[in-house]
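Long-time lurker, first post. I've been practising inverse folding by hand and with some scripts of my own, and I keep getting stuck on stretches where the structure tokens seem ambiguous. Below is the full token string for one chain I'm working on. Before anyone asks, I'm not after the true native sequence, just a reasonable design that respects the backbone. If someone could post their per-position residues I'd love to compare against what I wrote down in my notebook.
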């Protein structure tokens, strides 16, 4: 069934108290959908996000890593109580205390769940089959297995704090992938009705991490609303449009997009509400107050947008916006650079 897109006047007339403020992840489908999207992006099948040959191999490698995330997730118990125990979900009292103080119930700044190390080992085992045909990957996996406990914990600290200095960019995506599995599974077991917004809307209310991008959703009560997508736990929380997702100002927000395949510019304003416009699938939301940007992906123009995958594939947009003088507001857990 095709969802009918709402006109601006209809959106304004909706009961705003019914807006789903928090969308919790569904990990058993999320990782499979993300891997499929990465492969479509790598094959240059997404018209609004052109991918060059240089990036294609990396996207395929990350698709394999996300496949491993899906396999590890499916191997864990499906029963809620058993899963909560397997991934060390905090107890009701700890969650309630955090929520009573408007703190994230699953903070990335707290003690890491013990389960993450087992997930990490299982991810490496899943990737081992692919390494047989990729000597470079085999070398990286050997390095990861050889890390001491202190080195691995240091890498995890850097990933969760988004510190690029001193982190091996070849190791970080694999560590991040293990952390994503644990936090995404934990987030999926929460009750969204009880999670409170944080003092700042720029951080995830579930884990306190930064969003990797934002997305305009369609369908149901989420129709036409913008959500920030957490790079660690994959939760999404509502933020009004035309508002900087970094400094939360709205006076100097603008949108930048790539030129179309024929070398033209973005479509005229009379095409703004037309669906399936490739130039509006991926844009950068720039702010002249804080001089930062974060990408925004529009499900109205591509039903299958996946914020983390699409952000990873649209590096061309990062380059162009960076050249215009804007700094990226936060990173992507699956891509790390050894230097600014």
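-- Answer (accepted) --
I ran through it position by position. Result:
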């Amino acid at each position: 069934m095709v969802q009918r897109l709402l006109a601006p006047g209809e959106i304004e007339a909706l009961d705003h108290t019914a807006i789903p403020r928090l969308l919790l992840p569904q990990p058993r489908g999320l990782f499979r959908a993300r891997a499929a999207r990465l492969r479509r992006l790598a094959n240059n099948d997404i018209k609004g996000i052109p991918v060059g040959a240089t990036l294609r191999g990396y996207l395929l490698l990350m698709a394999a890593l996300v496949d491993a995330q899906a396999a590890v997730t499916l191997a864990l118990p499906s029963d809620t109580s058993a899963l909560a125990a397997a991934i060390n979900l905090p107890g009701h009292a700890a969650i309630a205390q955090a929520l009573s103080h408007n703190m994230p119930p699953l903070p990335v700044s707290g003690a890491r769940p013990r389960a993450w190390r087992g997930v990490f080992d299982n991810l490496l085992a899943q990737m081992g089959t692919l390494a047989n045909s990729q000597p470079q990957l085999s070398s990286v996996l050997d390095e990861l297995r050889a890390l001491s406990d202190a080195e691995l914990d240091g890498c995890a600290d850097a990933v969760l704090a988004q510190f690029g200095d001193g982190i091996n960019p070849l190791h970080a995506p694999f560590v991040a992938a293990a952390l994503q599995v644990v936090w995404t599974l934990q987030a999926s077991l929460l009750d969204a009705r009880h999670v409170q917004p944080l003092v700042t809307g720029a951080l995830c209310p579930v884990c306190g991490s930064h969003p990797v991008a934002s997305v305009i959703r369609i369908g149901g009560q989420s129709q036409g609303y913008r959500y920030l997508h957490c790079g660690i736990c994959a939760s999404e929380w509502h933020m009004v449009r035309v508002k900087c997702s970094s400094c939360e100002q709205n006076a100097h927000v603008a949108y930048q997009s790539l030129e179309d395949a024929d070398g033209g510019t973005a479509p005229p304003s009379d095409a703004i509400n037309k669906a399936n416009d490739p130039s509006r699938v991926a844009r950068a939301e720039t702010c002249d107050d804080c001089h930062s940007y974060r990408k925004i992906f529009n499900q109205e123009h591509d039903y299958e947008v996946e914020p983390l995958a699409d952000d990873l594939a649209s590096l061309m947009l990062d380059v162009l916006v960076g050249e215009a003088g804007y700094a990226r507001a936060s990173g992507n857990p699956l891509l790390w650079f050894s230097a600014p």
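A couple of notes from the structure itself: The domain at 27-192 is CATH 3.90.1670.10 (FdhE-like fold). The chain has two domains: 27-192, 196-328. Happy to go over any region you disagree with.
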